[in-house]
Amino acid sequence: MTEPTITLTNPRTNNPKINLYAGDTFNLRFNIAVATPEREVNVKIDNTSIQTSSVGDLFVIPVGTSGLATGNHTLTVSVTDGKLRKSERQISLTILP
Predict the structure, then answer these.
(1) CA dist., res. 4 & res. 79, Å (int)
(2) How far apart are the first and last CA of the chain?
(3) Beta 48-53 vs 58-64: how paired, if at all?
């Protein structure tokens, strides 16, 4: 068995960067592949959880920028399977003035 995988579709896997103006929203889109029926998916901005799920393989999560300061932030998508194997992807999120 292998560790879970995360495939970003928005933003693209090969360019995981998003630039937004304060107050804007974008849809984070990703798929996961997990070898066990159990999974825990967590989406965080700067280590603060904004969404969790224990079901599904395809995710579309609106990410709002209100309340975030202008500048650089880190959006993290992680998935842990039923055998506690974990994968993580990080996305650079820049809030423009």
Answers:
(1) 7
(2) 46
(3) unpaired
Asked if residue 56 lies in contact with residue 43, where contact means CB atoms within 8 angstroms, the answer is no
> What value does the mean pLDDT take over residues 60-71?
94
Residue 49 in contact with residue 41, Cβ under 8 Å? no
d(CA 18, CA 55): 26
User: What tokens appear for 45 in the block?
Assistant: 């901005």
Residues whose CB is less than 8 angstroms from the CB of residue 80 and which lie 6 or more positions away in sequence, other chains included: 4, 39, 40, 86
Q: What is the DSSP string of 23-91?
A: T-EEEEEEEEE-SSS-EEEEEEETTEEEEEESS-SEEEEEEE-TTPPSEEEEEEEEEEETT--EEEEEE
The model's pLDDT over 33-57, given as tens digits with 9 standing for 90+, comes to 999 999 999 999 999 999 999 999 9
1 — pLDDT class (breaks 50, 70, 90): low
